[in-house]
Amino acid sequence: MRSRLIGLLGFLLCSNLFAQDLEPRRWTEIPVGKQVIGAGYAFSFGDVFFDPILQVEDATIEINTLIASYVLPVRIGSKLGRIDATIPFVFEHWEGMLSDVPTTLNRTGFADPRIRFSLNIIGASAEESKKLREYIAENPVRTTVGLSVAVTLPLGQYFDDKLINLGQNRFVIRPQAGMIHTWNTWSFELTASTFIITDNSDFYGGMKKEQSPIFAIQSHLIKRFKPGYWASISAGYGSGGGATIDGQSMDDRRVNLLGSLSVGIPLAKNQGTKIAYIRTQALEDIGADVNSFVIGWSYMIN
After folding, report:
1. pLDDT digits (tens, 9 = 90+) for 183-216
2. CATH of 2-95+102-301 given 2.40.160.40, 3.40.50.720, 2.40.30.10, 2.40.50.140
3. How open is the CA angle 159-54-202, to the nearest 5 degrees?
4. What pTM, to 2 d.p., does this model score?
5. What is the pLDDT of residues 217-229, one digit of tens each?
6. Domain extents in the chain
7. 14 pLDDT tier (thresholds 50, 70, 90)
8. Which of 183, 237, 276, 289 is exposed most, by the fewest CB atoms within 10 A?
């Protein structure tokens, strides 16, 4: 019974953490002297697959997420950097059969926020709007290379006596390297990431949870149309994240394939919206197949 419970706990927490993203235009230059605020909504739903020994069947999940974001371009020497932060508020609903008994579960609250620092080491210098526009016009074919580190902070809703939580009670440190090659109205973007996950020593029932790193890669082909309009097709792959609870391996490595279509549409001066569909497909018998619809709004402050 303890092994079964530990396995269930390991999967639930891992499935919540393995939240890869697909982020087109990740390395696009933003002029210094500006700030960008944003808000978004995402609706995700899908099927969750457990090891049959856990006797969980027909499990489904629905997640409604509200997101607030902030981006601040910064000058580091002559290099262009940025600091950004995201804060999610989540409404989560689970349904399924646990040992042939219909079971539902709901969670509402803040999930863990994330803060990220990025630096473009190759590409445009840190410039204000006019000079950055001039650089882009003079270099219709160009390549930008960037590095970043993101930290997910353990500040979300967490209860050590509950099976499923919105927060993870541990840090996730995410080094990232990427590039975007632009030729006229087209761009190709490639980004590699590693999720380094600290231990949760206050896991359910006083247990300790450890988790191996997750390795992920994503690519995007982006087409720009008239000013403010763009579209992208994206793909991503991630693997890893096997958990150990109180020294017992869960043998639950995740392998996910992601695909996405996104469009960007201007709304008014300095304002725009992004609409995206994302499909996450589990490539192992244990995992989740999830569809997500996302709409976001952004405003650039002069």
Report:
1. 999 999 999 999 999 999 998 878 898 999 999 9
2. 2.40.160.40
3. 25
4. 0.89
5. 999 999 999 888 9
6. 2-95+102-301
7. very low
8. 183
